[in-house]
């Protein structure tokens, strides 16, 4: 379950991405503040790290996939993955990371792809009670639901590009950056189990990520 707080964030997530995205080699849209197309979240079993993947676009440009993690303290040895910090009106100071460098995200993505565990249930607190919030996109894996997923430890290497490759001790993950008709050809790079997604305006499933055992 992901608890969504009714809060203000400064700077906002989209303001952060407006600064950060143009510096990425895989980003192919004009500079500018992106709009949110859709999003999905994963659970951190420890309940400590927020894991959210945003689908955004600038103007009529392509839809880009941007996984982020939110932490209440810096992640050791991960300065290169830090976008910057934000002030959350409920949770206080938050460190926002490019999730491809965060081992908690790698483990969650491996579970979603190899175990077909789906996305987190969204709950929002309203007048002291938790209310379910509808998700705004659907994700599904080609792997059997409930398949065994190996433990994922430290990230050994990240290869930037489209897709971005995350190499761990047990699993190699690929995260597609440009989605749908604007994606790079994926048949040669996405192997193993594949995670696909749909959202309003994109009813045909498109590849989001893949995972293979090492």
**How would you sum up the global shape?**
globular
Distance between the termini: 29 Å
- Supply the helix-strand structural class: mainly beta
Uncertain ranges: none
How many helix segments? 2
* Strand content bin: 35-45%
* Major sheet details: 7 strands, antiparallel
Please report the total strand number as a whole number.
16
Overall domain count: 1
Mean of residue pLDDT values: 89
Share of helical residues: under 10%
Organism: Saccharothrix ecbatanensis
Keywords: ATP-binding, Kinase, Nucleotide-binding, Transferase
GO molecular function: ATP binding; kinase activity
Protein name: Maltokinase N-terminal cap domain-containing protein
Task: Please describe the topology of this protein.
Blueprint: E1 2-4, E2 9-10, H1 13-20, E3 35-42, E4 50-57, E5 63-71, E6 82-88, E7 92-98, H2 103-114, E8 122-126, E9 129-133, E10 138-141, E11 155-159, E12 164-168, E13 171-175, E14 178-179, E15 193-199, E16 202-213
Parallel strand pairs: 1-8
Antiparallel strand pairs: 2-6, 3-4, 4-5, 5-7, 5-14, 6-7, 8-9, 10-15, 11-12, 12-13, 13-16, 15-16
